[in-house]
Structures are given as C-alpha cells and as structure tokens.
Amino acid sequence: EHEGRIIQSRSEESVIKEIKRITQEEGFTGYISDLGGPTANMYRMNCRDTKALHSCRRPSCIYPGICGHLETDHQPLIQLYKKTRELQDVKKILIGSGVRYDLALRSLPYIRELATHHTGGYLKLAPEHISTSVLKIMRKPSFESYDEFVRQFNKFSKQANKEQYIIPYFIAAHPGSSMEDMIDALLWLKERKLRLDQVQTFLPTPMSEATAVYYTGINSLSRSMDGVYVPRGLKERKIQKAFLRYHDTASWDLIREGLIKIHREDLIGKKGIVPAKIPNSYDQKRPFHRRHNNRK
Known about the structure:
Elements: H1 12-23, E1 31-33, H2 50-55, H3 75-85, E2 92-94, H4 101-104, H5 108-117, E3 122-128, H6 132-138, H7 143-159, E4 165-172, H8 179-191, E5 200-201, H9 209-216, H10 234-244, H11 252-261
Parallel strand pairs: 1-2, 3-4, 4-5
C-alpha cells in the first residue's frame, strides 16, 4: 500500500557504484545499513507474465496469497549481498528491517544468508498484529508465517554461533482491532517475555485503505463489504496501546480498566497480568526503561 505494487530494482552495477562512492565519503565507518530499503527482500521481484501484468486487477501481488506470476527467486539478492560485502572498506552490510517474511520463507538460503552475514544483533519485523481478522484488513501474511520465519532465523543464527534477536513491531487501535484482540497480543508477548519499548497507535492518513476503513467502518476489499469494528474513542485507544506495554507500571491502571471493561478480571491479581493494586514502592512517574540506568 505504501510503496505501490511495482518493484523498481536498480542494477548490481548501480548499487555497487553507489556503495563505492559512500566508502570514500568523510566519516564513513565501514557499515552500510538497510540495503534494499522498505522492500528489503523483493529485489527484482516482478511479474513473469507481461500479458497477465497488463490485464491484472489484483491490488496486491502478495495478498491474499503470493501470485503465481510473481518472481520470488531470492538468488539475485543473495548474489548482490555477497558482492557488496566483499567490497574494499566495507565491514558490514546490514539489513535492519523491511523483510517480507512470507516471501523469505520461499528461500531458506536467503534466511541463512541474512542471519549469518547481514544482521547486526537485531532484526526488526512487522507482524503488526496476531489476530487473523485484523491481519486481513491490513493485508498482512498469516501470523503462522511470522512464527515460522522466526524459527528459521533463530536456527540459522545458532548455526552461525550468533546471538541475535527479532524485534516485532505491533500497532494498537487499528481498524478491526477489538480489546479482545489486543488481549491476545498481550498474552502472546508476555508468554515470550517480549517487552516492547516502541508501540504505535493507528492514525488515519490520506490515501490509505486503512483510513477508508477507519472512517466508513466498512472493509471495501471484502466481497461482502463487511462491517468493521473501529476503536475511535481516545480512552480505548490508550488502553489498547497500554496492553502492548504491559510491563510498564505506568500502563497498569489503563490495563486494569480495560480488563474490567471486557470482563477479564481473571487477568488481574498475583497470577494475572497486573496486580489488583500498584504497590506504593513503584514510582509511576519514572519511565520504565530508565529505572535501572544508574545501576553499577
């Protein structure tokens, strides 16, 4: 939706020429970040059938499923990675984000290459939600494909004797996302002991399908023109965001309020998500991530 359907890929020679130029710039440290940009692993992925391309009416080549006409071979990208990291004065070519994991699963050699040579400790991925209904509105791949990518990435990282982590990106209050959906996301994060420091709340922006859903309450891409629940109230939007920040004591009051509202009091208390009452020993005014900064 953001970049359009057609992928524009530069030649190997053009990319290598630019990297060589960058290496000569003052202050260059030897690191090239995010080769490939927002379409990190879609290099040279275009329609293989010119006739089909001209008559195609699909809004996306990769949703609801990857089109059979789409070229999904990762070998040209793997070759580009190898050539660029061998350039003089280049210490590391890093891919920090932008990987489309459903496509990456079609090339395990690519995931191996990514984990072995092109991850600087952390790789950011954007599952954005775990609810199937919300992911359909987002036109995102299934959450099962995210889990499988993580499994493969961790396997190849271990084989390379590297301690590397995937940082998932989630969004709160997206059209279609109910409080119950966000509870599922919260429980998924807590089960895996993941603590997100940066969480975004959905904001309607011009010329996007999600904004149309936000204002109309209708998913126009579904054949039945289904009505969609839209969290518009400020309080609920804050609560949904707080669910993703379950570990921050500053979020506990909102989380408790949200749990009571949807009758999930079972998640309040010693064995729940938040205590029934915040102990006086907690200083809610201090940001969570700064509490232990003075530790020696």
